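User: Predict the structure for this protein chain, please.
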Amino acid sequence: MFDWIRRLWTVDTAPGDDKRTHNLFEAAAVYVAACAEDDQERIDEASGWVSPEALSFGVNELACRAVIALAREHDESPGAMARTLLGLPAA
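Assistant: Here is the predicted structure, written as structure tokens:
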């Protein structure tokens, strides 16, 4: 079972390939930063590092951590901070 999880979270490189293995959190960080910078080349690169499901999980985890950190920094609830970031009116 643990081997299945490890394979889901990483992409192994072919023997002799210079590229290193990337984990889902690294892929998510690069993907989100590339989206913020509108860098399609890096978006495509990060998308190929892990499975779409793993990337989605990583992006979700990054979003949760970012909202929590910003909420603490601004002394707001995570819900209020998420609404602020999305430009939604207060609930």
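The chain has five helices and no strands.
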